[in-house]
Amino acid sequence: MQRYLPSILQGETCCRNWPCSQFGKKLDCRVRIIARKRLKDFWQHPGHEDAEVPLREWFTEARKANWKTPNEVNRIFGSASIVANKRVVFNIKGNECRLVVAMDSRLQIAYIRFIGTHRQYDRINAEEV
User: Fold this and answer.
1) Tell me, what's the pLDDT at 20?
2) Which of 37, 43, 94, 123 lies 20 to 30 angstroms, CA to CA, from 13?
3) What domain range is 107 assigned to?
C-alpha cells in the first residue's frame, strides 16, 4: 500500500533534504511553474505575439533551475528584481514586459502572478498580486 503514496508522504526528501514539491517515483528538485497558461494567454493576445519567444525562453530556463534562495535567481536572470512577499519581477523582451512570480524556494515552486506590459505593471503592486 505504501508504494502508492506520493514520495513526500513516504518520508523521502529531495537533494536538499527537504520534502520535495514533486510527487512520484523520482524526486525532482527543479522549479515547478504554476499558472503557466497565463504566459500563453498573454502572447496570444493581439499585440503581444512577439512576446512568445522570450516567454518560452524564460520558461525553459526557469523550469530547469534549482533556486535555493531568491538571490540565486539573479545568477540566471541578472535583471530580475527581488521584492517583498517572496515576489520576483522578471524583465521580459528587453524590459517591454514584466513577469511577477511568487517564489517558494524551499519547495521549488514559481507561481506566475502577473504578466503584462511595462505600463500595465506600473498600475499594480507587485508585492500584492
Assistant:
1) 52
2) 37
3) 31-121
